[in-house]
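Just scan my protein:

——
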Amino acid sequence: MKRVIKVKIESGRRPFACKLLIFLQVVLGIGAVFGGLGLVIDPSGELIKMPISILDYSPFSNFLIPGIILLVMLGILPLVVSYGLIRKTPWKLADKLNLFSEKHWTWAYSLFIGFILIIWITIQMYLIKQIIAAHVVYIFLGLLIQATTLLPSVQDYYSVK
């Protein structure tokens, strides 16, 4: 006879995978805040050494709109989510967009951020007609955020009980 041992995660103890997820969200958020602010402050891209010529095939004449999107969606949002992942803060407005009612809103938004990052980088590669090493790194980061979010220990920790 095989013996099955189930490990119950105590609600007060944060598993390592949850700490990793918080770290990944903070890294993404901080990087995107700096990049997004740099593009908003100087839409020509010169401040962050981004040549305006990469926008030749895009619908944008400068980096203002991409900078705002980067700042908000991949900068501020992951930082808000990371704070929520740490504190498990309730937020009714965020819960309205939570497609996973059995999970805390931050768990769902963490998954959404992985998708947003992958879509953002994919569109960026399409519009600028090139792939650079940073694209590969950020696609990997998006996949890592999603994979970490989907780990059983993370799902258990952020389950609404």
In short: The chain has one domain: 16-150. The two ends are 33 Å apart (CA to CA).
